[in-house]
Design goal:
By secondary structure, this protein is an alpha/beta fold. The protein has seven helices and four strands; from the N terminus they run E-H-H-H-E-H-E-E-H-H-H. It has helices at residues 14-22, 27-39, 41-44, 60-71, 107-115, 133-148, 156-173, and strands at residues 6-12, 51-58, 79-83, 98-106. It has a four-stranded mixed beta sheet, with helices on both faces. Helix 2 (27-39) packs parallel to helix 6 (133-148), helix 2 packs across helix 7 and helix 6 packs across helix 7 (156-173). The relative contact order is 0.18.
Length: 179
């Protein structure tokens, strides 16, 4: 199997396919946004030359199960990130991509959040009022990627750093909507 520098796998669980189709969310659009994000110079020093990323779009019961199992929180959430870059390092055979990790997103939560528009802290960055499901999913992928790369929002200073970078990178991910 031939690997490109960045392998992106996007899995759409059967329970959310109809919703994604109805809202006109296209896999190629999301993938091209992820490629732009991961190619940005602000992240490239944290990403191996040959890497792999898996994004799974799922429903509320599935994300609630994951949130309960891995975070001890028995409720839905919008995005969960499972980094493969943390913990013990391991050697892969030459030519195999380094797995960055997995991002799990509830399409149902994302749709609800998209009806409210972008987060208030992002409003000053938007050129357009349009904020649909594809934009919300793109933002949640951006948020998840930053978690995979070691960014967090546990402390106020960490949150400020992460949110500032999110706002800057949103222009890369959504150039027609953000300035």
């Amino acid at each position: 199997m031939q690997y490109s520098p960045m392998n992106i796998t996007l899995i759409k669980r059967p329970t959310v396919k109809a919703l994604l189709d109805r809202e006109k969310v296209y896999e190629q659009t999301l993938k091209s946004r992820v490629v732009r994000l991961l190619s940005d110079s602000r992240l490239s020093d944290r990403i191996p030359a040959c890497a792999e990323l898996c994004i799974t779009l799922l429903d509320n019961p599935e994300i609630q199960d994951l949130n309960r199992e891995y975070r001890n929180q028995d409720k839905t959430t919008d995005v969960l990130s499972f980094s493969m870059l943390e913990g013990e390092s391991f050697d892969l055979p030459d030519g195999l991509p380094v797995p960055l990790g997995d991002i799990m997103i509830s399409v149902e939560v994302a749709l609800l959040q998209s009806t409210r528009g972008a987060l208030p802290r992002l409003h000053s960055r938007l050129k357009s009022e349009h904020w649909g499901l594809a934009e919300e999913l793109s933002f949640l992928i951006l948020h998840g990627v930053l978690h995979l790369l070691g960014y967090d929002h546990e402390s106020e200073s960490d949150a400020e750093q992460m949110e500032s970078l999110e706002a800057e990178l949103l222009r890369v991910v959504l150039p027609k909507i953000c300035h």
